Amino acid sequence: MQIVFLCKHCHLIIIPSRFGLLMFAQTICAIAQVFVLGIPARLAAVWFGPDEVSTATSIGVFGNQVGVAVGFFLPPILVPNSDSLDSLSGDFQVMFYLGAALTTALLILILLLFRDKPPHPPSRAQQLAVEAATHENYLQSLLRLVKNKGFVILTVAYGINTGSFYGISTLLNAIILRYFENEERNAGRIGLTIVLSGIAGAVLAGIWLDKTKKFKETTTGIYLLSLVGALAFTFTLDLDKIWIVFLTAGSLGFFMTGYLPVGFEFAAEITFPESEGTSSGLLNASAQIFGIIFTLGMRAFMEEFNVLTANITMCGALLVGGVMTSLIKADYRRQEAGKEVAKCLQVDVEVTPSDSNHHEEQIDDTQVLA
After folding, report:
1. What is the overall mean pLDDT for the chain?
2. What's the 3-state SS for the chain?
3. Count of structural domains within the chain
4. Rounded distance, CA 343 to CA 353, Å?
5. What CATH number corresponds to the domain at position 264?
6. Assigned domain for 178 exists
7. What is the pLDDT of residues 166-188, one digit of tens each?
8. Contact, 253 vs 62, CB < 8 A?
9. Which residue intervals define the domain Major facilitator superfamily (MFS) profile in the entry (predicted)?
10. At what angle do helices 39-47 and 53-78 cross, to 10 degrees?
11. Could you tell me the sign of the dihedral formed by the alpha carbons of 149, 155, 156, 160, in that order?
């Protein structure tokens, strides 16, 4: 469904002289993004075992971020600045044709090669989730999630962290140019640095979770480090040394993007056996809402006051989100479900040999009596 939406968008967007159609295609792309952002957690849970699922989720987030990095890198190359409208129009059309060809190829590959799920669940917890899903419906699942206090707090905290990241990313060019005039290229490179460092942060966070299983501690720690990164970015902008901004922006991206898979996995733990797709979808919805709030709010603060005020306000929001995260109970339901099933299987294995021995003793006694 997601790739169909994206493919349709790319084909519609290449039709010339149709601004209304262009906006319609952009709307389709935005709808597709809602589905795409929630894929990693669900896909990882369906296909990977308990010692791999967090790493798989982080790699899924890694894929999304690679796309963002390509978006920072390729368009300026494919569509260089020009005073000729005809030249710009032709360059844009080439870029959109490439996008349409790529998404079409991906759609064909998915239809031909991709399977919905493996023949057998990869973990005991996933087996229980599949069994529970056969007896439940989506609305009931949503109601249980809304009643889950820990998940509601996490949803708001996740929205604050990711929404502030969206706000900074959207306004990055304006923020950098307020302190460094005529540095448009470096502003783009700083954005690329944020994304690339975030890719590393996401993958390392997933590996760490698989090794330690410390979901709450990791989530809280990365949240607070995101706050530290935001403060460092805020108070180094006016040092007039752009290389320092590269470093602090990189640390900001490392922790804020590293938070994405950690938030997904923490949500999956405290909401089990609800579908990971549902919980991650609600987290992404919160992120989009807060992203709009932070983007509009920070822009208003920048115009009414200054960049420093806007960034400090964002840091204050991150502090609130960090405190909220620390209040979430470490209720690792998915881990406990896996342990309970393992205990049951162990008991069955222990009981079966004793029953067999008892049966053999009865046969021996019968033979002696005979």
Report:
1. 78
2. CHHHHHHHHHHHHCCCCCHHHHHHHHHHHHHHHHHHHCHHHHHHHHHCCCCCHHHHHHHHHHHHHHHHHHHHHHHHHHCCCCCCHHHHHHHHHHHHHHHHHHHHHHHHHHHHHCCCCCCCCCCHHHHHHHHHHCCCCHHHHHHHHHHCHHHHHHHHHHHHHHHHHHHHHHHHHHHHHHHCCCCHHHHHHHHHHHHHHHHHHHHHHHHHHHHHCCHHHHHHHHHHHHHHHHHHHHHHHHHCCHHHHHHHHHHHHHHHHHHHHHHHHHHHHHHCCCCHHHHHHHHHHHHHHHHHHHHHHHHHHHHHCCHHHHHHHHHHHHHHHHHHHHCCCCCCHHHHHHHHHHHHHHHHHHHHHHHHHHHHHHHHHHHHHC
3. 1
4. 16
5. 1.20.1250.20
6. yes
7. 898 888 888 888 888 877 778 87
8. no
9. 1-333
10. 140
11. positive
* Cα(227)–Cα(367) distance, integer angstroms: 78
**Whole-number Cα distances in Å, 153 to 139, 150, 273, 320:** 20, 5, 18, 11
Q: What is the pLDDT of residue 235?
A: 92
Query: What is the chain's alpha carbon radius of gyration, rounded to the nearest angstrom?
Result: 25
Angle at which helices 2-13 and 85-113 cross, to 10°: 150
Residue found by looking up tokens 């699922």 in the block = 53
pTM exceeds 0.85 for this model = no
> Is 302 a domain residue?
yes
Exposed (0-12), middle (13-18) or buried (19+): which is 232, by Cβ within 10 Å?
middle
Domain of residue 179: give its range: 123-341
User: Within a domain: residue 223?
Assistant: yes
